[in-house]
Amino acid sequence: MKKKYYVGISLLVAFLIIVIDQVTKWIIASSMKIGDSYEVIPNFLNITSHRNNGAAWGILSGKMFFFYIITVIILIVLVLFFIKEAQYNLFMQLAISLLFAGALGNFIDRLFNGEVVDFIDTNIFGYDFPIFNVADSSLTIGVILVIIALLKDTTNKG
Length: 158
What we know:
The protein has 158 residues and is α+β, with helices and mostly antiparallel strands.
């Protein structure tokens, strides 16, 4: 049976996320000093210029070579998974596209700037969540969608 891939939709989603991510980071980096903050929604959302040379929450700060290697491996695995496992499944292909775009968006920052531009600063139910960006959001949503797709696939087979 012929495999069906939604390559056009998947590429469009990945491209749009990467463009939005890079444009918003450029706007923040070029118009705000590190530490500048603007309140958007009181006690919930600020735009705060921040830089991160590590992973989430600053883990492994300054280990750029490690991030280069890991990101390239992740991108290759995502492409291979897309080709092999996501056939006939637009939902899974979109989830993988979000993961790919998020990983590539932050990789571009690390490669050209040695750090990632973060700016979305939220306070959720009194918790001051670590500052993040569009690529981080794409990664998080992609992971959630992959989990949903895998759980749905598991329940359909059982």
